[in-house]
Amino acid sequence: MTVLIAPLAADHLHARSEALADLLLDAVDDGASVGFLAGTGRDEAAAWWRTLHPSVADGSRLLWTASGPDGRLLGTVALVRETRPNGTHRAEVSKLLVHRDARGAGLGRRLLTTAEQAARDAGATLLLLDTQTGSAAEHLYRGAGWTAFGTVPGHAATPDGVLADTTYYYKQLIG
Q1: Which residue among 43, 137, 140, 144 has its CA within the 20 to 30 Å range from the CA of 103?
Q2: Distance (Å, rounded) from C-alpha 137 to C-alpha 82?
Q3: d(CA 79, CA 139)
Q4: How crowded is the C-beta side of 11, counted as CA atoms within 13 Å?
Q5: What kind and span of H or E run contains 144?
Q6: If pLDDT is split at 50, 70 and 90, which confidence band does 44 have?
Q7: pTM recorded for the entire structure
Q8: 36: left (phi over 0), alpha (psi -120 to 50) or beta
Q9: What is the pLDDT of residues 133-163, one digit of tens each?
């Protein structure tokens, strides 16, 4: 399947917010701990995406979408750049989501690589992220050269409200 990964400009965030909401809710329905609980409505999820407009507009958050040949949204990833003077060398990978229908074909790796390259291009030398301990995402991050540096017990609730551990990762982009 041909998938196009492209940056999403702030001007287009509102128009894509419902498709992004569907992608987010697919992840929640599949049990991913991505900040939302089961029962979150489409309107609430779309509204959350729209709250990102200021950070996308000012460039502190870079956002990409992955679309299939029919234009259907299959994935997304964000890179949140640190803007405080003591941290401009680092950024955080956030909301790496791949629709269940598109998993297993390397799209997650492509999205992660896109964010990593953008970080390099912006001069970042250190990336951070977190994910639910024991999740399938951990395999992706470890395989892409990320290093786990700590686990926080009961850090975030799964969609069904059960507290789960979160593992933090870093990747140095030097060299």
Answers
A1: 43
A2: 23
A3: 20
A4: 0
A5: none
A6: very high
A7: 0.96
A8: beta
A9: 999 999 999 999 999 999 999 999 999 999 9
* Range 15-44 average pLDDT: 97
Backbone dihedral region for residue 164 (phi beyond 0: left; psi -120 to 50: alpha; all else: beta) = beta
Q: What is the CA radius of gyration of the chain?
A: 16
pLDDT digits (tens, 9 = 90+) for 59-118: 999 999 999 999 999 999 999 999 999 999 999 999 999 999 999 999 999 999 999 999
- Do strands 147-157 and 4-7 pair parallel, antiparallel, or not at all (unpaired)? unpaired
Distance between CA atoms of residues 12 and 10, nearest Å: 5
CA distances from 166 to 37, 54, 65, 66 (A): 16, 28, 25, 26
Distance between CA atoms of 36 and 29, rounded to whole angstroms? 10
Instruction: State the Cα angle at 33 between 157 and 7, rounded to 5°.
Output: 145
Note whether 84 and 67 are within 8 A (CB).
no
- Residue 74: CB atoms within 10 Å: 26
Band of pLDDT at residue 175, cut at 50, 70 and 90: low
Distance, CA of 52 to CA of 63 (rounded, Å): 10
